[in-house]
Amino acid sequence: MSEQAGEVDFALAAFVEDGVWELQDIASPAFESVESLAHALRQVSGESGAVGMVAVDEDFFVLVRVAGSTTRVLLSDVTAADEWELAKSAIDFLHLPPPEDDDVEEPAGDLGLLGDLGLNAIEMAALLDDVELYPDEMLSEVARRLGFGELFDDAVGLTSA
Is 85 exposed, middle or buried (CB count within 10 Å of its CB: 0-12, 13-18, 19+)? Predict the structure, then answer.
């Protein structure tokens, strides 16, 4: 169970600086666990903290939000913890048991971690329920709702529909 940097689709830190959203790449090994990701985010955190967005192998994503000493985590698919170290670290961080073989693909963690930024828990849950979307498309929608969709799409190479 070890992912290589090549299997990470992207790892980005988003934060507000002087009232404007900024986006910055997060380099390996900072995206290999929730703890290292939170540490990296604290280095760049702006006025309302920072949001880490990591998508892996078109399979799942992890959102990590830091504000001061608080770290909040959302994993898009608990079953990814069987295969990926980052997903396992999210499960461990959330103090959840490892996924069972019969577990379904469902999110774990804090659905409301971006509520104060414009994406509440109900909207996040609806977005995660959309089986038609890949992780990068879900995160693009998250970025759009928070106000930096175009910046995000440019950074990850998504073209607007």
Answer: middle
Per-residue model confidence as pLDDT tens digits over 34-68: 999 999 999 998 778 999 999 999 999 999 999 98
pLDDT for position 160: 56
Domain range list for the chain: 5-150
User: Closest Cα to residue 90, out of 105, 75, 110?
Assistant: 75
Q: Is the predicted pLDDT of residue 6 greater than 80, yes or no?
A: no
pLDDT at 119: 96
Angstrom distance (rounded) from CA 41 to CA 26: 8
CB 12 within 8 A of CB 135: no
- Please give the Cα distance from 107 to 52 (Å, whole number): 16
Please, what is the Cα angle at 125 between 130 and 46, to 5 degrees? 115
Contact call for residues 23 and 12 (beta carbons, < 8 A): yes
Contact between 121 and 143 (Cβ < 8 Å): no
